Amino acid sequence: xxxxxxxxxxxxxxxxxxxxxxxxxxxxxxxxxxxxxxxxxxxxxxxxxxxxxxxxxxxxxxxxxxxxxxxxxxxxxxxxxxxxxxxxxxxxxxxxxxxxxxxxxxxxxxxxxxxxxxxxxxxxxxxxxxxxxxxxxxxxxxxxxxxxxxxxxxxxxxxxxxxxxxxxxxxxxxxxxxxxxxxxxxxxxxxxxxxxxxxxxxxxxxxxxxxxxxxxxxxxxxxxxxxx
Length: 228
Ligand SMILES: NC(=O)c1ccc[n+]([C@@H]2O[C@H](COP(=O)([O-])OP(=O)(O)OC[C@H]3O[C@@H](n4cnc5c(N)ncnc54)[C@H](OP(=O)(O)O)[C@@H]3O)[C@@H](O)[C@H]2O)c1
Known about the structure:
Blueprint (H helix, E strand, L loop, with lengths): L4 E5 L4 H12 L3 E6 L4 H9 L4 E5 L5 H5 L10 E6 L16 H22 L3 E10 L14 H22 L5 E6 L16 H14 L6 E4 L8
Parallel strand pairs: 1-2, 1-4, 2-3, 4-5, 5-6, 6-7
Helix pairs in contact: 1-6, 4-5
The chain binds NADP nicotinamide-adenine-dinucleotide phosphate.
């Protein structure tokens, strides 16, 4: 056992499930969240014999986020991953954006995860890391446009993650890194995506290991810096 603890918000499938499995294999105690019962996550918990504790959480429901604080002591968590995210459907052209679709995706992908990270921050130990699951699609410099809802939500998340870092995490000695997981074969990424979950997860855990907590950076799974 490595004696380390991680919390993964959004671990029912895809990248979050992959992170839970990999961290458990590395000896972490993992607190992994599902919104509704995930057979895959429960299977992983059985396979890893006690290393994965499953909690219920909808990242947009502050009460369910706060309940996670019952699962671990203040200052005991090495890594908090805010992985939960949605793509936002097919109506993403500029002239299709409406009040409800914008509010939903910005809340789910940007506001709720950073507010949840702020609420859970006291659990993270000095020298620990908060990893925000962003996307290269949230890079303004890298963008040729389109997929506006999703891009808008990840740009917003990056900005709120900067506030989380500068005003809250850094003063407590906790790092914040915004991650691009690559284009990954999951329900969201689809079967034609370029890399598998294991490649993405192992790369991102290397990035987290190398983060010194001094700056808030936007880094891809392969270690390359993503332009804001
Ligand atoms: N796949 C890619 O190529 C790619 C690329 C760049 C960034 N990302 C980002 O990486 C993250 C994971 O993506 P993925 O590909 O693994 O997606 P996925 O297969 O669609 O899984 C999404 C995960 O987020 C959870 N989730 C969604 N809304 C939630 C909410 N309100 N509360 C709690 N959990 C919620 C889902 O839970 P349920 O099972 O309950 O729905 C699921 O566990 C996302 O933030 C995504 O934007 C993915």
